[in-house]
Amino acid sequence: MQDFGRLLAGLGLLLLVAGGLIMLAGRAGLPLGRLPGDIAIRGKNATFYAPIVTCIVISILLSLVVWIVNHFRR
């Protein structure tokens, strides 16, 4: 049970850091969520939003971070 608690605490810390980075990116003027290729369709009663390019950019950055961490861990 202690390992599960550590896992939850670690995930919570990771979410806290990710949220802080996203807030800083918004204040720095980075257009995350408004990149070319992100789809936003606005109708009279509904809005559909699909941040496709933003998800790809975040995926590439996270993959790079994981690769760097694994590279220096060995």
TrEMBL record:
Keywords: Membrane, Transmembrane, Transmembrane helix. The chain crosses the membrane at residues 7-28, 48-69. It comes from the Bacteria. The keyword Membrane applies. InterPro entries: DUF2905. PANTHER family: BSR5223 PROTEIN. This is DUF2905 domain-containing protein.
